[in-house]
Amino acid sequence: MAGQISQRFIDDLLARTDIVDVVSERVQLKKSGRNHSGLCPFHQENSPSFTVSHDKQFYHCFGCGAHGNALRFLMEYDNLRFPEAVEQLAGRAGMQVEREGGDDPGAAKRQQKREEGVNLLELASRFFRERLALGQGKTARAYLERRGLSQEVIRDFGIGYAEDEWEALKRYLSAQGISEAVQVEYGLLVHREETGRTYDRFRDRVMFPIRDWKGRTIAFGGRVLGDAKPKYLNSPETPVFHKGRELYGLFEARQANRQLSRVLVVEGYMDVVALAQFGIRNACATLGTALTADHLQRLFRLVDEVVFCFDGDNAGRQAARRSLTTALPSMIDGRQVRFLFLPEGEDPDTLVRQEGREAFENRVTCASPLSEFLFEQAAEGHDLKQVEGRERFVSAVLEALKQLPDGVLKSLLLKELSSRSGIETSQFSDWLATHAPPVPRPTAEAGDDGFEAMMATSGEVESAPMAEYGAGPGYGESRAGTGGPRRGLAAARSGTATLSLSWPARIVQLLLHEPGLAETLPERLDWCSEAEPDGRLCREVVKLLRAGRYRSPQVLLAHFHGTPEGERLDQLARREMAIPREVRASELANWVRHLERQSERLTPAQEYQQLLAKSRQPGALSAEEKQRLRELIGMLAAGGSA
To answer: Where is the segment annotated Disordered (predicted)?
Structure first.
């Protein structure tokens, strides 16, 4: 039997976890000063009394008194035992749970490797800072002086120097007892497979440590001093660094502004540092990649306003258009995005030196709001004096607004579009409702049983009795009636019918349109098998609707944003809902009864596979289900039948 989870591992796990990220995946939070607030998931309430503190890594409800850290939240919210909560949190952080003693022969080795990884990057950062101060760093110091950086800014950002040697850092870290394999894994050494040689990745470069939200070094960026290429070099992806999530300078911005309300996103390290030198301490930079949804999620958890800064050339405009596309799905009410375009040939570093802090901050304040930039881009290249030009302009704006969550901002943009085009707002609403992008029919591939089983051919639909599809009164007519086409089958032929979906998928789609119907479902979820296509997703959606009391499909979609489940939900949300509103409750009850009957008809082998799949989730099986699983194992081993 494995030993107890070590306290050191738990401490490290909590240090690597941001409780705001964990809670916001399950509860809708809104930034409120230095904290985040929302409706408490542990008791019924109409006004928010649930607070999550980023600084203290703690949650507390002033209504029911629930409180604790990230582990406690998982235990209470997901109804997990302590070891299961640790497993889940560790899996989320990409860590393997380590225990004291027990019968795991690799535990000590993993523990040693983890400790090496935790200390490695901080040791490297200290090495680079020391080399900047020594004789070898003379050229780098001169470069930083020419760029006008003070000792205070160099200290605050931890800037260092990687000397022009092949193995300087390698020798230093090896002397600290850190193996070359770990140095390679964390991106500090390059390994040449053809020769087996390892050498320092960063050489003769000014080094900028990239820090996580707690200030720990997780990667580096290096700016070359000579003519070597590339000019800027980042650490590769490692167990602790994913460039699509991290932003350079965000930790330093939070340290300098305890009440941060706006973040300026620029292009490079020197832009961030140069702005800080002039007292503008709220800038950060992406790390050699385009803006991602993860970047935006991280920013909007800290502030309500994000300003993107771009060069004024064609490349800058193109990058701005990509950022606009990325930002639209995240623009729930209360958030603000602006676009700042600099004079051609200038960047934040050069411009702030020319015109000073006040003039540059005025540019930021006057940056174009998202709405203005959206309309400007939609109108580009079109003559709005002509009908055809206005048609293309309107279509471009509506295409963009399809990505925008429902809310006040979307309503105002539609009203503004109506004013600019002379078309009634109601016609835009109709267009948005009928021009959802089609969901491509998945192709059946090996191992893709879920999608293959989910899609039914039109012949299969027509040959099945309507009662089997749970059609309630008012939904369709019997074949013995007038002989006219039933609405359900007509919709099926259109390619958007509910009938082409698996049973759990139909339920999920219906709940996306009518979240309140989750309250009518049976308390236990035994009727929805995880072995069914979309079965696990259905169970998760029902649990969220009950626990989080979501009443908006957009909020539910935002919960799963950026995941395969989120893409699947988006597909289902875009499909036409062919069932009339007045019979949706009865249809849902019929579908659940069908699944209940179906589960009762399972063969022992099917029931065994269903329970086995469910058992792979920690704590998913009840005591009765565990007993039934043992019975089925014995039954199948003996060749018996139910």
So the answer is: 465-491
